[in-house]
Amino acid sequence: MLPHERMAYRDILLLADDWEEEVERYIREGELYIAADGQRVLGACLMIPASPDEAEIKNIAVLPEYRGKGLGKEIIRGKRQPRAGHGRV
Questions:
Q1: 3-class DSSP state for residue 14?
Q2: Distance (Å, whole) CA 77 – CA 35
Q3: What pTM did the predictor assign?
Q4: How confident is the model over 46-66, as a mean pLDDT?
Q5: What pLDDT score does 79 carry?
Q6: Which of 2, 9, 40, 42 has its CA 20 to 30 A from that of 63?
Q7: With the C-alpha atoms ordered 17, 22, 24, 30, is the resulting torsion angle positive or negative?
Q8: What is the DSSP string of 58-71?
């Protein structure tokens, strides 16, 4: 996915970080993982690799009605099939 295409996920990331300028900066970095149900995005996680074995989670956001159900953990662990690319987007 091209960096400008990631902007489609900006609104979900803004659920966890209300500083728009910061989200627009880091959305182009790292790896973006998405959890979706059909066409509806339920959650997203953006990670930036720190080393071959570590990554920094810059943002993780889940729609309010899906919070507390383990969806965020599933995104991080890669158990949830992402919307595009079956992995990172």
A1: coil
A2: 12
A3: 0.80
A4: 93
A5: 52
A6: 2
A7: negative
A8: EEEEE-GGGTTTTH
